[in-house]
Write a structure and sequence with these properties.
Layout (H helix, E strand, L loop, with lengths): L2 H10 L6 H8 L4 H19 L2 E4 L1 E6 L25 H13 L4 E6 L5 H18 L4 E5 L5 H9 L4 E3 L7 H7 L6 H13 L3 E4 L2 E2 L6 H13 L4 E2 L2 E2 L16 H22 L3 E2 L3 H6 L3 H7 L4 E2 L6 H4 L15 H14 L3 E2 L8 H10 L1
Parallel strand pairs: 1-11, 1-12, 2-3, 3-4, 4-5, 5-6, 6-8, 7-9, 8-10
This protein binds S-adenosyl-L-homocysteine and iron/sulfur cluster.
The site of S-adenosyl-L-homocysteine has 18 residues, from loops.
Length: 367
């Protein structure tokens, strides 16, 4: 089928593409076809969301991790990383800064720790944030796999959204990216647990992993639909030299351009397939091009997660190398962002939680 016909078909209603059709869109090579793909996705974003961007102030609360994902710079066995954990009061202060500056919502992310003291720590942090944020301040957690009870406690303490990427929906590829005791099945079960607790649930994958095929990425997009995700947070894979997967890879300009293009195509096809979900233009896009996040918005994304972690800690939270904004302070990051977004005709929804439309439309249908 030609590209224009497929785009028309996708625009008509959500999930109106087969696996082969998703694959066909991801495989588009001609410049004019790719531009048409981005335009169509942007139109759907305009239809559901308008020319608006929601912000999540991102706090990287700590880089201590019990896991050993082969791609990640803060994996447990990377001894060259200086480990840190922000204190409760540091985190609450950064959250307060985001609230006072009308970010509307927050994302707390860290290495994965499964223990009672970590559970309690976040419970306490969430309760403290709730004292000023009340229900007007969105809180997304990205703290990895946890027991159902832990998810429940954090929800009760004030979190509304949870982001847990499955990294890839392909079991063989997942096995190649992780040690044996890391389980895709558990990760998927965690997504169901999160849904059962009433979170707006986000998931996603890494894009352009060594050995990953476009057919696998097409299946990933179908997986997002099948699990009925409310939010998508995905981004290009970027090598880190102190990891098993990244140690021999070079981020050449050609490689960077390929990863960026594939990342943008995934955003566009996700928007075309899922329509009303929140999709983040992630920092990894910005690592590949200084205007990578803006390009992500024009390909259909509607969320940006500016890093508001104290700059002193950012260098120790490098999941991949080339992380942007290491030497910026939060105030200057914000100014730059506002200007860049105005240039592309997008406006920040200051002070709004920016919840997933899909989540609430789904709830309405259930009633
Ligand atoms: N520990 C939590 C959250 C922090 S990691 C978790 O794993 O869920 C957040 C995300 O960073 C991961 O889900 C992974 O998709 C991404 N990531 C890790 N290493 C990366 C790399 N080298 N390139 C791109 N993304 C990476
Ligand atoms: Fe830890 Fe998350 Fe990195 Fe895996 S991706 S090593 S769980 S921080």
């Amino acid at each position: 089928m030609n590209a224009a016909k497929l785009l028309d078909q996708a625009e008509k209603k959500p999930r109106n593409l087969s696996h082969d059709e998703i694959l066909e869109l991801l495989s588009l090579e001609k410049q004019e076809d790719i531009q048409a793909l981005f335009r169509a996705a942007y139109q759907i974003k305009l239809h559901w969301i308008g020319p608006f961007v929601s912000l999540r102030g991102l706090i990287e609360t700590g880089n201590v991790c019990e896991k050993n994902c082969y791609y990640c710079g803060i994996r447990k066995d990377n001894n060259s990383v200086e480990r840190y954990q922000l204190t409760e009061s540091q985190i609450v202060q950064m959250a307060r800064w985001a609230f006072d500056n009308h970010y509307g919502s927050l994302a707390l992310q860290s290495g994965e720790l499964e223990n009672e003291s970590n559970t309690k720590r976040f419970e306490s942090i969430l309760r403290q944030i709730h004292t000023f944020g009340k229900d007007d301040f969105g809180i997304t957690l990205s703290l990895g796999e946890q027991h159902l009870e832990v998810y429940r406690r954090w929800k009760e303490a004030g979190a509304h959204r949870y982001l847990l990427r499955i990294e890839t929906s392909d079991p063989d590829l997942y096995r190649n990216l992780h040690p044996e005791d890391h389980s895709l099945e558990r990760r998927i079960n965690c997504l169901y647990d999160l849904k059962s607790c009433g979170y707006q649930v986000g998931t996603g994958v890494m894009i352009g992993l060594p050995g990953q095929t476009l057919a696998q990425l097409a299946s990933d997009i179908q997986f997002f639909g099948d699990i009925d995700a409310d939010m998508i947070g995905m981004g290009p894979f970027l090598p880190h030299h102190q990891t098993p997967l990244g140690k021999t890879l070079q981020l050449t300009p050609e490689y960077a351009a390929r990863q960026l293009l594939l990342g943008l195509k995934m955003i566009a096809v996700c928007r075309l397939y899922l329509h009303d979900v929140n999709i983040a233009a992630t920092t990894a896009l910005q690592a590949l091009a200084s205007d990578g996040r803006e390009q992500g918005l024009l390909a259909g994304a509607n969320v940006i997660m500016p890093n508001i972690t104290d700059t002193a800690y950012r260098k120790n939270y490098q999941l991949y190398e080339n992380k942007p904004g290491l030497d910026e302070n939060s105030e200057s990051t914000r100014q730059k962002l506002v200007e860049n977004l105005a240039d592309i005709g997008e406006e920040i929804l200051w002070g709004k939680r920016g919840d997933s439309k899909h989540f609430f439309l789904k709830k309405e249908k259930e009633m």
